[in-house]
Amino acid sequence: MRLKIDKLGVVIAALLAYGAFLAPFAQFRANRIVPGEARSILEALPAGLGAALLAFVMISIILIVLKTPTIVRLVLGLVALLVLAVLIGLSAGHLTPPENTYARVSPASGFWLLSFAFALVTADALARLKLSPFARVALLAAVAGAIAALLMSGAWDGLSILKEYGSRAETFWLEASRHVVLALGSLAAATLVGLPLGILCHRVEALRAGVLNVLNIIQTIPSIALFGLLIAPLGWIALHVPGAQAHGIRGIGAAPAFVALFLYSLLPVVANTVVGLAGVPRDANDAARGIGMTDRQRLFGVELPLAFPVILTGIRIVLVQNIGLATIAALIGGGGFGVFVFQGIGQTAMDLVLLGAVPTVALAFAAAIVLDAATELSSNKPGRAA
């Protein structure tokens, strides 16, 4: 029987081999800002566990290189990610001297490479299985539950990122709420403005090119530059418009960040609304006219429902984009997870950077999965035009 080789598996196997045998698994530092000392898997884990992990990786490499059943690859990827998550927590307790509150242990490049490689295995298996939208959301919920269980169990308490969180727990949740409000609030405002504007651009062709060109120009402005451009006009409004400052409008802070995110959000919403409405089959409109539906009735009863999946795709783009861009808002006092990112950069404390970066990536990833599932469900509704 001839063995079949998986081409993607060969690439993943190379990442696994490098991450396990050549790259450091954890990094030990005497305190939070000094350079770290790399520790291999055998050095970072208690006796026996390091060798067991290396053996597990070697077996995984064989299974990944060969064309094994998809479900086997999925289970392997998920189990491996769980094992790595548990072991990195154990490495913190193993490397930290007893009763030492200053030492820091962080995941090193080997851990991240192994996690990335097994995440690729999992993602590839999920793509091949073509899970239903509900199954993908359920899997996301299960992963979130597993992470929450690890956090509540204290398995990661010895890691530097959790020690950074421990000294900033109240501030963390305050900035998390600001980040979510900025991302979702600007999305809601852009949807309220962009949807009618997109409908208008679809109906009035002479207006379409001008509006889309202006929105395209806004998209080309770098985020920091746009924040800077908004400081002067918003500062003028705060000084000259009664009650503006009482409502939080000022040159720096959340107001320019919100406005910038709103402006960045308009193009995907408007453009996808135009594309979605343009893609409505002519037969559907003709049939609606034939039964005596007015323009308003056709818009809300036929055109918008058929265009909804495309519009929702634009909203997905906006939400993921805004979750990332909201990090930059910290530069002008807008708050959010960027506060920890830029504090960490200023203090050369990379675990503080991770405290802001990791939840930002997790939020964007979860939002993408949920809205992808919603888009697919809306596309597959009974009676919807193909």
Brief account:
Keywords: Membrane, Transmembrane, Transmembrane helix, Transport. By secondary structure, the protein is mainly α.
Keywords:
ABC transporter permease subunit; 74% helix; ABC_transp_perm/SBD; MetI-like; 386 residues; single chain; transport; three-stranded antiparallel β-sheet; 15 helices; 2 domains; 3% strand; mainly alpha; MetI-like fold
Explained architecture:
The two termini are 44 Å apart. It contains 15 helices and 3 strands. A hairpin with a 7-residue loop joins strand 1 and strand 2. The longest helix is centred in the middle third of the chain and has 35 residues. Strands 2-1-3 form a 3-stranded antiparallel sheet. The chain is mostly helical and 386 residues long.
Shape estimate: flat
Number of helices: 15
Helix content: over 70%
Main sheet overview: 3 strands, antiparallel
Using the CA coordinates, give the radius of gyration.
Answer: 25 Å
Beta-strand content estimate: under 5%
Q: Low-confidence parts lasting 5 or more residues at pLDDT below 50?
A: none
Named CATH architecture of the largest domain: Orthogonal Bundle
- Strand ordering within the main sheet: 2-1-3
Q: Find the CATH superfamily of the largest domain.
A: MetI-like
Mean pLDDT: 87
What is the level 1 CATH name of the largest domain?
A: Mainly Alpha
Structural class: mainly alpha
| Total domain count | 2
Number of strands: 3
- For the terminal residues, how far apart are their CA atoms? 44 Å
* Succession of helices and strands: HEEHHHEHHHHHHHHHHH
CATH fold label of the largest domain: MetI-like fold
Transmembrane segments: 46-66, 71-90, 110-127, 134-156, 176-200, 212-237, 257-278, 299-319, 325-345, 352-371
Domain ABC transmembrane type-1: 176-371
Subcellular location: Cell membrane
Protein name: ABC transporter permease subunit
